[in-house]
Amino acid sequence: MSRGFVKESDQEDLPMVPPRADLPAGTVNYVTEVGYAELLAERDQLIHERDSLTVSDENEKRITVNFINAKLDLLNERISSAKVVDLSKQPKDKVRFGAEVFFTVDSDPKIQHYQIVGVDEANIAKGKIAFTSPIAKIFMDRKVGETVKLKLEKGEKEFKIVEVRY
């Protein structure tokens, strides 16, 4: 049909939905049990939000429902591709997915820690980093007492692993 026969009000743009956390193509979507539960809770919350919308303007309601549905589509892709890792089966003496790694940086004696988690559950403020991050990658398969180096634009940082917990 020619664009000349389409009402302008019928030409609705698809909603711009912010992308989810980056998961490189071909990378398995590992998640902890907690992370998987958070994804399911997020889905339930979005469905509830969509189903309980109280917007009187039909156009605004349609736009909002389309936006929520687009977010649900992205979320459902993550949920369906999720591979839950049982942390109780991880080797206790090595850093693997789900580990909480306690370490020192360079000569600073202060102990810091991060838990290595899935990309959707990563939150630096909560001490959770994605398994795809450079720091997580240098920690993988390392043991307590080992020192690893992270090359940065201006030099490098040295991390000494002092404890691993699951």
Description of the molecule:
With 166 residues, the protein is an alpha/beta fold. The protein has 3 helices and 7 strands, in the order E-H-H-E-E-E-E-H-E-E. It has helices at residues 33-51, 58-81, 134-139, and strands at 29-31, 82-84, 100-105, 108-117, 128-130, 147-152, 155-165. It has a 5-stranded mixed β-sheet. A two-stranded parallel ribbon has the order 1-2. Strand 3 and strand 4 form a beta hairpin. Helix 1 packs antiparallel against helix 2. The longest helix is centred in the middle third of the chain and has 24 residues, at 58-81. The N and C termini lie far apart (60 Å). The model has no long low-confidence stretch (mean pLDDT 92).
Brief summary:
With 166 residues, the chain is of the alpha/beta class.
Q: Which outline best applies?
A: elongated
Order of helices and strands: EHHEEEEHEE
Portion of residues in beta strands equals 25-35%
Strand order of the largest sheet: 5-4-3-7-6
Structural class by secondary-structure content? alpha/beta
